[in-house]
Amino acid sequence: MSSAIPQFDAELIARHDVAGPRYTSYPTAPQFHVGFDELAFRAVACASNEDPIPRRLSLYVHVPFCASPCFYCGCTRVITRDHGKAEIYLDHLYREIELVAPLFDRDRPLVQLHFGGGTPNFLDDMQMSELLESLARQFSFSRDADREFGIELDPRWCGPDYVRMLATHGFNRISVGIQDFDRTVQAAINRIQSVEETRAVLDAARASGFRSTSVDLIYGLPKQTVANFRRTLEQVIELAPDRVATYAYAHLPDRFKAQRRINAADLPSAAQRLELLGLTVEMLTAAGYRYIGMDHFARPNDDLARAQEAGTLQRNFQGYSTHGDCDLIGLGVSAISHVGATFSQNERELRDYYAALEEGRLPIVRGIELDDDDALRADVIQQLMCQGRLDIASVEARHRIDFTNYFGVELERLRIAANDGLVEITPENLAVTPRGRFLLRNIAMCFDAYLHAPAAVAARYSRAL
Ligand code: SF4
């Protein structure tokens, strides 16, 4: 799929614009249940050490605080300017680290670290340094060239010195939120951020030896027009990040309180959203970015594009990842772990997260252990989302099934997509077509065993476009 040039077919995309999961996991988070608890997590963590070749480790750390609310936001975050709250949070995070770290053998190298939020740079230099030193004492940070230590930064609240401090701790990848540079749009979403402060952070990262820089944009925001978004894209291309993620804004004010402050009358229409997406694809591909899939673009020499070419690209909770073969440990409120064939999530509210740790318990609230059917479907969905193709014989060998017999119903669903030109089906392969590249999740949905009640799907997930 990597070398195929995607074909943006607006009419086709509009026709398939249905609600559906983004498949950062399969089964998806709504399937997690409270039956998977701390004991289950401890058992699977211990068992993971006994694998013939234990997987390497990946660590995700969630910092939930933000100094100001962006009105479009649907993340788990706490709005505050009180940095004393960070101290209380860190106290509890350290307790969690002390409970979790001993569960994993010390000789398992930690090759991936990711700080997300919220705003990770809500932690000041001292707090961040102490946290990183503590993690380095309790896990074996890899020194390998392929290690990936990344962090999401908000340039409104940090400068070049902070980026240089991160470099001294081994960070080599940053992701910077932009969303839109137009001042009218920024006012409507309550996020005023200049090109200059964004450039200062990206330049500092490059000067400090960061291997990859990434920016996030959102299309479908209030007051966005093709003309003003074109200007934002020009400014982004000039900033020359290695990766660009362009997410579709999902207006769900019943679910996300902050979104109630967005005037629905200011939102672009479905046709305008499609134009904004088409413009994004056109301008980024013309500027040399490769479409990876599901909103992600990368330069051809970026690790993400290389991983896709090598067939090692994976999907995880940060989107696409180059280290999907690891056991992922999530730390902090709402963080998700993926250890062995399980997913588990921490408490989503700070008070519950704190209460569990004060009682000396891991703050795990729910999770799921994959059965054979889940594992098979997760594999199929992963292949389609990351590589855009599926080698049927290798799936049959890995899971000891007869593909055509096992997936009779799914192949029927897929044939409808094939009739629309989204995917090609042969006895050997399933291959997403260049026109199907923007509808990956629609194709993956054909294999999702949990999606049988369309009404429930529409209520839970945002639309594809
Ligand atoms: S978008 Fe990011 S910075 Fe803005 S409120 Fe949400 S988590 Fe915080």
How would you sum up this structure, described in words?
With 465 residues, the protein is of the alpha/beta class. It has 2 domains: 1-27 and 372-465, Arc Repressor Mutant, subunit A, CATH 1.10.10; 31-331, pyruvate-formate lyase- activating enzyme (Alpha-Beta Horseshoe), CATH 3.80.30.20. Helices cover 38% and strands 20% of the residues. It contains 17 helices and 20 strands. It has helices at residues 10-15, 38-49, 84-100, 125-138, 160-168, 183-189, 195-207, 226-239, 270-286, 303-310, 350-358, 372-386, 392-399, 403-406, 408-419, 440-445, 454-460, and strands at 57-63, 65-66, 78-79, 109-117, 140-141, 148-153, 173-179, 212-219, 243-248, 290-293, 296-298, 314-316, 319-321, 327-331, 336-339, 342-346, 364-369, 389-391, 423-425, 429-432. Strands 1, 4, 5, 6, 7, 8, 9, 10, 11 and 14 form a 10-stranded mixed β-sheet that branches. Strand 10 and strand 11 form a beta hairpin. Helix 3 crosses helix 11 (350-358), helix 5 (160-168) packs parallel to helix 7 and helix 8 (226-239) runs parallel beside helix 9 (270-286). The longest helix is centred in the first third of the chain and has 17 residues, at 84-100. The model has no long low-confidence stretch (mean pLDDT 94). Bound molecules: iron/sulfur cluster. Iron/sulfur cluster is lined by residues 66, 69-70, 73, 75, 77, 117-119, 154, 177. Iron/sulfur cluster (SF4) is lined by residues 66, 69-70, 73, 75, 77, 117-119, 154, 177.
